[in-house]
Specification:
Layout lengths: L5 H13 L3 E4 L9 E4 L1 H36 L1
Antiparallel strand pairs: 1-2
Amino acid sequence: MIVREKTTVSRLVDGFEEKGWIRRETKSKDKRSRALCITKKDLDLYKKGHPLIEKADEVLKRSYRNQIFEICICYY
């Protein structure tokens, strides 16, 4: 879990909302509580891009594991 200051998170969310990536909705009786919802346009973009990100992450993790393995072999 990544811990951030409330003001930092608020600024990030404000920027995302200004760019149209998300919208804030009141989902409960508590007017202070907001739900962050991805917009339709960006949901489509996420669906297209997510598999690429997953694949890149897999390749990077594999590369990292191989590097660690090679370092361990060097010490034995």
